[in-house]
């Protein structure tokens, strides 16, 4: 009977200051320890639930921590060193970052890692590819809920837009993305990952003037981060015989690495194929 009463009453609103003071005046040490333990556990559960809710809203495609990420091939802007794990200076300052580099250099990984660190610190985050974001806004416009969709994006602390340039945008899509970038000027932080140089963004947006306007807003409070070095995917490519351990684990059959000349050719061919595919996709 007592257990049922406690279970029912404990789920009701928090105690007032008067009730807490009265309890503290008469409680024994055993009572204090019990209540303190319950309160601490409640705060832990509440914090965990809030984090899980933020992670769901962030829509991150994967969980990639910043710890262990190789920053040796990442060129940060002058005056801005490598980000410390969990450091959210850029989010607190409302700054923007543009991650630029070829395919497979780790742009998405670092963007996700920063987003997860922000969510862990209580920040609201939203992750989306440029194509997904534009499609979401186009659908909202068709339903008559575009204003609400844009407002939802404005209220997040950190907006991450990945794969800008992988898929060209039409005029309507470019204008919608422009509205998102313009709204982010008012204290919101944005991380944009792209494999297209800023000077060629006109091929993505189908309009040099639109591209110039978007770049102007990003440059105002943003920093360009360059990703160099070799492709992580090429370094770990199964086709090049560099992941024989993975093949053996999956199939139970040892895989013999291909000849060096063959590996060099395949590496060159795949790199050229990926770059050409992105160039074709970027054409208006």
UniProtKB/TrEMBL annotation:
<protein>
    <submittedName>
        <fullName>IstB-like ATP-binding protein</fullName>
    </submittedName>
</protein>
<keyword id="KW-0547">Nucleotide-binding</keyword>
<feature type="domain" description="IstB-like ATP-binding">
    <location>
        <begin position="25"/>
        <end position="236"/>
    </location>
</feature>
<dbReference type="InterPro" id="IPR027417">
    <property type="entry name" value="P-loop_NTPase"/>
</dbReference>
<keyword id="KW-0067">ATP-binding</keyword>
<dbReference type="GO" id="GO:0006260">
    <property type="term" value="P:DNA replication"/>
</dbReference>
<dbReference type="InterPro" id="IPR002611">
    <property type="entry name" value="IstB_ATP-bd"/>
</dbReference>
<dbReference type="GO" id="GO:0005524">
    <property type="term" value="F:ATP binding"/>
</dbReference>
<dbReference type="Pfam" id="PF01695">
    <property type="entry name" value="IstB_IS21"/>
</dbReference>
